[in-house]
Amino acid sequence: MIDKLKSKSNINDEFKYVAKLLSRATLSFLKINLIGQISIAILCIITIIVIVSQTFNNGGGPVHTNGQAAILVLFAARPISFGLTILSIFGAPILLFTLGNKYVMFRTINRLIADKGEQLLFPIIDRILNKAKDNQPQLFQKGTDKAKLQLKILQEIRDSKENKWFKKIISYGFKKVELDEIDFKNENVSFTEILKIKTVDKLKDISQPSRLFFYLILGWQALILLLTVFKVI
Questions:
Q1: What is the pTM assigned to this prediction?
Q2: Which value, in Å, is the radius of gyration of the alpha carbons in the chain?
Q3: How far is CA 99 from CA 29, 88, 104, 140, 195, in A?
Q4: What is the pLDDT of residues 115-140, one digit of tens each?
């Protein structure tokens, strides 16, 4: 009875930890993207307003021309600042979203591994590898096609009903595993156990991520605005 209560308590504790970990990851993702995307939009809009006001400062304005003509005039008058601003409008949000995703994932991996990574990830990886082995046991036998094995396991990870964050983490770690280092001809070795350990070991090698990319992107936008205001570009 005591053992059952302890087991139930451990399950509840793990569930609470996972919920807390994933809520932090989601919050971090929203903070980086919302704050970053809004800041980029504001800086780009202000820069364009400055360019327009500096270009049409003699009473004329884009209202007297159609949109295409106004854009051509702005490009002709301020090719560098206007070109960089337009490029930033399309490129900066995509760059921020991509790097922000990686930052959140790496941060989640570091937190998970530091706390109880093996305890939580090993059972999930076991389920995925065992299912892959049950579906195509020949891939785990000697002389196996390692490229096919990797693709099959990655497919099992994507198709599994596990939490999407954990699937991303496990998939990232597994892609880093060098299957050529594993001797599949040794019948005394549990390949699923080796793959599981190597996957988590690869995740342990990930260093603590930095938010430097976030400040560099916004700093670049602010620099374009500053240089535009003083007509340096």
A1: 0.81
A2: 26
A3: 11, 15, 9, 35, 28
A4: 877 888 999 999 998 888 888 877 77
